[in-house]
Amino acid sequence: MAPNDSAETTGSATSTTAARRKAARYVVPVAVAGVAAATIGLVPALADSGDPQLPKISAQQLIEKIAASDTQQLSGTVRVSTDLGIPSLGGLTESFARSAGGDEQGGSSAAPKDRLTELASGTHTLRVAADGPDKQRVSILDSAAEYSVIRNGDQLWAYDSKSDEAYHATIDKAPDAEKRGGHTTPDGVPATPKALAEQALKAADSTTSVTVGGTAQVAGRDAYKLVIKPKQGGSTIGAITVAVDAKNGVPLKFTLSPSSGGKAAIDAGFTSVDFGKPAASSFTFTPPKGTKVTEADEAKTEKRAEKNGATGPEGLAGLDGFAGREGAKVIGEGWGAIYAIEAPGGGGLPSSENSADVPPAAQQFLDSFGDKVTGKFGSGTVFKTRLVNALMTDDGKVYVGAVTKDALVEAADAAN
């Protein structure tokens, strides 16, 4: 077992954005689910099978080992298990996710943002491959179908074998390419495992404890365990454990444990991994004959037309970019940061008496998902997952963070 050693880092809180006036009444809990799903972008992990004896290493040295890793070629199988405490969304998952595709992705069932929300619950098997920064493939497997996202140079394809639909974009039209500095794989699809650890360790200060928590064996590889914990109280995150390949510094395992206890909220990782060069065929794709293909420009045009006359919800996109919007503010710092904003139109949540404009399925979802709370701020509803919680007050204020219900209520009280 490697000895414990510590360093200081911090993670940045999830950013958010306002939904439109009518949507704001019931999009918040779904947006919370979306943020919880977005945390899966920090994944790979699987169960340990033994504690190998490895040379001593400090937390700082292990972080540097991750940063220095130059491994850009790999292939393997990843198993992802997610228990975010989200009630079953039923048909809402598909309907809201289709709305969340954004200007770039439109309504194609193959659009990456639509399909990657599946990873927000349950257990899934993924097949992954990477050959440098310009060639990646991620496939979600099930018993009768496969969904794949493939990038090869300036070409981005997504294909859903179940619906026989494909989505296609070139590098300058790929979703959120500019936001990610030209990193054109879709949201939630990591380019390399190294990128996952870089996200988890980004932005360091004194709000986080980082230690080496021993060793493990993952997918037949010896690894060190990097344990990341908040120093602050009130966070829903108990600890993040990253198993780092002892030889090449590649993260093999990512486990996020909630502060409330119980099984991991996210436990995902390699069951098998090969650091050799993947076959070139892994990154080639030609739509089968008869496949419905949606082009990025076409999807963008369709989505703009819909939005020009739309009055419905914008779905899971509700929290992206939230902190940077006019009128939004951050309460607290580090793991305890809470984002506050006035809901568009100043309206609170619908009740059974005033919910004529809310679909029955959405109202049922709200009723099952929220807890009524009161405080100096008045009254409101807290929507919970095991990681991200949101308080929407009856007068239309929204408080969101990876913090407990009590922390949200305290923040709302302090703001009034």
Descriptive report:
By secondary structure, this protein is an alpha+beta fold. The chain has 2 domains: 6-12 and 26-304, Lipoprotein localisation LolA/LolB/LppX (outer membrane lipoprotein receptor (LolB), chain A, Clam); 317-414, 2-Layer Sandwich (TATA-Binding Protein). It has helices spanning 24-38, 59-68, 92-99, 102-105, 112-116, 193-200, 296-309, 360-369, 405-414; strands at 6-9, 73-82, 122-131, 135-141, 146-152, 155-160, 165-170, 208-218, 221-230, 237-245, 251-258, 266-274, 292-295, 329-331, 338-342, 370-375, 378-383, 389-393, 397-401. Strands 1-8-9-10-11-12-2-3-4-5-6-7-13 form a 13-stranded mixed β-sheet. The protein has a 6-stranded antiparallel β-sheet with strand order 14-15-19-18-17-16, with helices on both faces. Mean pLDDT is 73; it is low at 9-27, 39-49, 88-106, 173-193 and 301-323.
Number of strands: 19
Sequence of secondary-structure elements: EHHEHHHEEEEEHEEEEEEHEEHEEEEH
Distance from first to last alpha carbon = 50 Å
Helix content: 10-25%
- CATH architecture call of the largest domain: Clam
What about the largest sheet? 13 strands, mixed
Q: Per CATH, what is the topology of the largest domain?
A: outer membrane lipoprotein receptor (LolB), chain A
> How many discrete structural domains?
2
Overall mean pLDDT stands at 73
**Uncertain segments of ≥5 residues (pLDDT<50)?**
9-27, 39-49, 88-106, 173-193, 301-323
Describe the global form.
globular
> What kind of oligomer do you see?
single chain
Task: Report the C-alpha radius of gyration, rounded.
Answer: 21 Å
CATH class of the largest domain: Mainly Beta
What's the number of helices?
9
Name the CATH superfamily assignment of the largest domain: Lipoprotein localisation LolA/LolB/LppX
Please indicate the percent range of residues in DSSP E strands (runs of 2 or more).
25-35%
Q: Please state how the strands of the largest beta sheet are arranged side by side.
A: 1-8-9-10-11-12-2-3-4-5-6-7-13
